[in-house]
Specification:
It is a single chain. This protein is of the alpha/beta class. The protein has two domains: 133 residues, 3-Layer(aba) Sandwich (Rossmann fold); 43 residues, no CATH class. 45% of the residues lie in helices and 10% in strands. The protein contains seven helices and four strands, in the order H-E-H-E-H-H-E-H-E-H-H. It has a four-stranded parallel β-sheet, with helices on both faces. Helix 2 links the parallel strand 1 and strand 2. It starts with a helix and ends in a 7-residue tail after the last helix.
Length: 179
């Protein structure tokens, strides 16, 4: 039940973002976050693009919680979504825009950005450290190590498995100091 209620709220917010982008009349940029992140991870980038004259949208995946605290309290909302379902969700939002956007995605968001570009939905696409498509081998050791907390247990197949701080740092922030 929580999932259906969250989807309505999030979709309403995303439709509002699309409407605001259309009213602004500026070139839109859609930011797509990766796994274990939320739309707010793009806040600084969105602000930078807004200052440069673009209008930014930071839609979430279906049922994304609003805060990190909510995500930690209800990790199950991240489970049981296919890549196609998430791409379809973004497509619905993008198709509401009057202008074709630039799409920027990171990690799994980069993979989604490429899928959306393949559907002809962007004027330009930037995929930052994109997750690989199925069948792309060999995977680097670092990718396997990053995914191991989820993949090592077959019971995780339909579950959302949060990373520890150290696991996240290795996978996504290993070039940054701990501070």
């Amino acid at each position: 039940m929580m999932s259906a209620m969250r989807a309505e709220t999030i979709i309403e917010h995303e439709l509002q973002q699309a409407g605001e982008a259309n009213r602004a009349g500026k070139k839109p940029v859609v930011f797509i976050h990766g796994l274990w992140l939320l739309p707010s991870s793009w806040d600084r980038w969105a602000e930078l693009f807004e200052e440069a004259g673009y209008t930014s949208l930071e839609p979430g995946w279906p049922d994304d919680p609003d805060t990190v605290e909510q995500a930690k309290a209800h990790p199950e909302v991240f489970a049981n979504k296919t890549i196609g379902e998430v791409a379809d969700h973004y497509e619905k939002i993008i198709r509401r825009l009057d202008k074709k956007p630039a799409i920027v995605g990171h990690s799994f968001g980069g993979l989604l950005a490429q899928i959306l570009a393949g559907r002809g939905l962007s004027i330009v696409t930037v995929a930052i450290d994109a997750a690989p498509y199925r069948g792309v081998l060999p995977l680097p050791y670092s990718s396997l190590k990053s995914a191991w907390p989820v993949l090592h247990n077959p019971a995780n197949k339909h579950r959302a498995v949060p990373l520890t701080f150290d696991q996240f740092r290795f996978a996504f922030a290993n070039a940054m100091s701990e501070e």
